[in-house]
Amino acid sequence: MIHQHPRFYVGGDRYIEVELGDGMSFELNILVHNLVAAIRQAAIPGIIELIPELASMQISYDPEVISYADVVREVGALHDGASRTDAAELPSRMFYIPVMYFDPWTEACIEDYRSRQPDKQPDAQLVCQANGLPGRDALRRLHAGTDYWVAALGFWPGLCSLMPLDDRARIVAPKYNPPRTWTPRGAVGLGGALTCIYPDRTPGGYQLLGRTPVPTFDREQRLPAFHDDIVLFRPGDRVRFIPIDQAEFEFLESEVEAGRYEHHCVEHQTFSVGRYREARRRLEAGQPAGGSA
């Protein structure tokens, strides 16, 4: 549900948590991004940093320049405009990420977990059953058949929350219970309706579908994509997964290790919220997304 008015929560003497809703949807997330863009454009003195999340955002501010009450008043006024806009054009880079679906490394991780939790279904089998898919090939085609929206980053540097932009490719799955103690770096997982790419070897709870050989987090900043930041994605980027086989995986992995790999990214693109909404309306009406009425 989207709140009619944003809810503000004190986060210490320099942070404010702004909650715009209590669900998980593209419309709610795009409202977060629209409000972030509006605040940045307004360049309000004293506001230092904005951190967009799935349904909320965090504001860092300097209390010696602007008071808590004034931040609430300014952001509340901007929210009224952001919530109505259908003409927003947001900066949105497009990344193409190679993925080996059902790879041996994540399969070994799954089997290690199942050796201690034998009632746990293998991940691909569970996801297929939960979504009425006949098998792994259908799951791979469906998961790789849409662009994904980078809705948020968090919990670990570079850990992304990806929403499918094509509703026809929406897949859902429960999380592990209890969670795993380890996950291979680069694993691609599904939890709820979100996809993530594990940026490092970490614990995790998403169902594992594959693994990418290319990094999304590089603390040493060796590759060109990390010259300006240690993480690859920004909120509002888009991602498309490109299925590869093991030979391609090993070649790309060797390029990464040699420091020669360059991420496939289309820069300087924008995402039109209005045109996307129109495409969704057409699909819901049974018309081609880009066709004429």
TrEMBL record:
InterPro entries: CT_C_D, Cyclophilin-like_dom_sf, PxpB. GO terms for molecular function: ATP binding; hydrolase activity. This is Transporter. It comes from the Bacteria. Keywords: ATP-binding, Hydrolase, Nucleotide-binding. It comes from Halotalea alkalilenta. Residues 6-233 form the Carboxyltransferase domain. Pfam families: CT_C_D (PF02682).
